[in-house]
Specification:
There is one protein chain. This protein is of the alpha/beta class. It has two domains: 257 residues, Rossmann fold (3-Layer(aba) Sandwich), CATH 3.40.50; 49 residues, no CATH class. Helices cover 44% and strands 18% of the residues. The protein has twelve helices and nine strands. The protein has a nine-stranded mixed sheet, sandwiched between helices. Helix 1 crosses helix 7, helix 2 crosses helix 3 and helix 4 runs antiparallel to helix 5. The protein starts with a strand and ends with a helix. Belongs to the peptidase S33 family. Keywords: Hydrolase. This is Alpha/beta hydrolase.
């Protein structure tokens, strides 16, 4: 299905990935532009609607593919997706890469991963660098347990600073340990306070409800697509929560043979800045650069778009040229 919006061509495409149909949106203003594959977070939370609502203009410079991972959105099919694992998603992602290279006749493409997607794409780029011009990690995941320890401490410290006695009592009542990913009570304090305190999706002005509104408002989704995103959010976390909780991206992707660019909001407590910096310092790459976004939490590509585009166009593409 092709949808033309002014100079933008939007394509909704599906390919076979190991007997399961995976879906994606591809946006381009010029098919001769370099291709960039965006790997979304979650797990199980496609970000096409969020990016479109923000007005990010990177499709003026790149042909951007928003692939939706097995088990959610355009790639949800309970009868064919089988067990949803990190390894299966990485394999699907590499099949998407091959599809894009062939479709646009490009030898290599750019790879950008956000949050959970930064773990998936780090592994992709580390294992098979021959496909990629550069790796861009946004809201880069490091060690997820340690990151959530930082999150818990941030919530408690902020509640104390704000003299929010109700929140402080609630947060203190939740035990944080290695089983945090199973804890409904921990999820409740994240849902109630992380965006409120400015350490979540955006530094300010965002809520989980807004995320749902963006999905509903996105005209390129059918109602079935929207329902499958909601199914995928819960199903993907159930399938991948333990893997994510025990993840250390520096172990899974220690070495890169492509330039690496890390973009991180200093107020990010979904994937903590401290853990992203540790990842950056530990990995090996022919060149690497970390950019601290001083006014952002977890979504610097949405929160500080002008600077993000400068990094992409001037530094990332400039370095490759």
């Amino acid at each position: 299905m092709n949808i033309t919006n002014q100079n933008m061509n939007v394509t909704k495409e599906y390919i076979d990935t190991g007997g399961h149909i995976s879906g994606m949106f591809i946006e381009s203003t010029d098919i001769n532009n370099p291709v960039l594959l965006f790997v979304h977070g979650g797990p199980g939370f496609p970000q096409y609607a969020q990016v479109k609502a923000s007005g990010l203009s990177w499709a003026n410079h790149f042909t951007v593919c928003y692939w939706e991972q097995r088990g959610t959105g355009l790639s949800y099919n309970a009868s064919t997706q089988g067990e949803v694992t990190l390894e299966r998603i990485v394999a699907d992602g590499l099949e998407v890469v091959n599809h894009l290279k062939q479709k646009y006749n490009q030898e290599k493409i750019y790879l950008c991963g956000h949050s959970w997607g930064s773990l998936v794409s780090s592994i992709m780029a580390s294992r098979q660098p021959e496909h990629f011009l550069a790796y861009i990690g946004v809201g880069q995941l490091g060690r997820h347990y340690e990151s959530n320890r930082d999150t818990y401490d941030f919530l408690l410290e902020t509640a104390i600073e704000r003299e929010d006695k109700v929140a402080e009592k609630h947060i203190r009542s939740v035990k944080f340990d290695k089983e945090f990913y199973k804890s409904q009570e921990y999820r409740k304090i994240l849902g109630r306070y992380l965006n409120k305190y400015g350490g979540g999706t955006k530094r300010e002005g965002y809520s989980s409800l807004q995320g749902v509104k963006d999905i509903i408002a996105c005209k390129h989704y059918s109602w079935n697509d929207r329902l499958n995103i909601l199914k995928g959010i819960f199903g993907s976390y159930d399938a991948l929560g333990e893997t994510l909780a025990n993840a250390d991206a520096t172990v899974m992707a220690p070495h890169f043979d492509v330039p690496v660019f890390i973009v991180h909001g200093v107020y990010d407590y979904q994937t903590s800045y401290k853990e992203a910096k540790r990842f950056y310092e530990r990995i090996e790459a022919p060149s690497k650069q970390m950019y601290t976004f001083e006014h952002s939490a977890h979504s610097p590509f949405v929160e500080e778009q002008e600077r993000f585009m400068e990094v992409l166009v001037e530094d990332v593409v400039g370095a490759v040229r």
